[in-house]
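Minutes, project huddle
Topic: does the predicted pose make sense with flavin-adenine dinucleotide bound?
PN asked that the exact inputs be recorded in the minutes so nobody has to dig through chat later. Recorded below.
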Amino acid sequence: MGCHACASICPKSCISMESDKEGFLYPNVDYNLCIRCKQCINVCPIINKEEVMNDPVAYSCINNDETIRLDSSSGGIFTLVAENVIDRDGAVFGASFNDQSEVVHVFVETKENLEQLRGSKYVQSKIGNSYKKAKEFLDSGREVLFTGTPCQIAGLKSYLEKLYTNLSTMDIVCHGVPSPDVWHKYVEFRETEAGSLAQRIAFRRKDEGWKRFSVSFLFKNNTEYRQNLRNDLFMRAFLKDVCLRPACYDCKYKGLNRQSDLTLADFWGVQNILPEMDDDKGTSLIFVNSEMGQRLFNEVKDKMLYQEVDINEAVKYNSAAIKSVKYNPKRDGFMAEKESLPFDKLVAKYCNEPLQRRIRNKVRSGIKKILVKTKLINIVNSARK
Ligand SMILES: Cc1cc2nc3c(=O)[nH]c(=O)nc-3n(C[C@H](O)[C@H](O)[C@H](O)COP(=O)(O)OP(=O)(O)OC[C@H]3O[C@@H](n4cnc5c(N)ncnc54)[C@H](O)[C@@H]3O)c2cc1C
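Predicted holo structure (tokens), as shared on screen:
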């Protein structure tokens, strides 16, 4: 899964995380230095998967702070929880862009810097030395909130080897993580088109609404690229499942028995379950998985609008919570040609809807337009009478 637990625990530092040809990191052991202590094997969260049994409670949530909510992917709950930890002089770990537009795990210690972690980045984040740093803070008695994908949380807990009362964890419902190499190719493609380097990237702008979010690049030459999820080339490849990490097609961390204290998700389907909590600006679905999670939730609940929901009902609209995406047979071709084809041609070749479906969608939207027109004409005619 690329979690870095083995590389972080190795007492001889003889495990390095190296990129394969698809751009995903895997451990590589230098057997000249290895002392066969097997610590790497003992902390591997796949080899020693810990089963947890909890009884999660789900909530629909909206942060009262509209500015933070609009800057977040769903209801802006990550920031609320993280701010409280920082108020207690804690450190918050999560995914951020670095200067090369790569996605990496970092820690922040001030509320202002939480902005770096806010918002989903649809790329596998590199853990680097974050587990080691988190352990250092924990051992010194400092509070830590570690956030990431479910497998990154499992990797951290396995690496730590013991329970810390000053640690809290928050995972996300995860569709799967795209290749950092494919992302890099896409950034290069956009920068070439713009004739300038990217300065700020956001995957989830809500200008056209939360459900129809847009990807945006602000370039150093002050131009902007913005396109909604259906038309953005990278989002099309992501949602067609042609560039996810191989392990994501058989994820071992799906389900409702999670290792984290809190789980964050988009409350897709909120319009059907709790329409009064849907204004298309972003609603979060939260699972409170543990006593620690309940404590974190209780601390912030006065700063949000929330309502308990039936967890089984809620995940009906969010299958990523409980099952892996299906392997797309086109993935092999997409990955094999990612270096040789320009990004737009690559996506056109492997991510277009089949002709039949495109025709069906066109016919459907044509019929819809005619129905709306007929309805309007009827309204005008009856008003004239
Ligand atoms: C790769 C990926 C796939 C996702 N798939 C789904 C899905 O299928 N269904 C669903 O309901 N929700 C999914 N989410 C979660 C969702 O997009 C929101 O992140 C979540 O609802 C939290 O929103 P928020 O408004 O509370 O906070 P935000 O401020 O939007 O969230 C910030 C949090 O996300 C973490 N984060 C951002 N990017 C990454 C990353 N690359 N790796 C690890 N952690 C990251 C940050 O560390 C921080 O904890 C996914 C997120 C990611 C990153």
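Observations noted during the meeting:
- The mean pLDDT is 95.
- The chain is about 35% helix and 20% strand.
No decisions taken; revisit at the next huddle.
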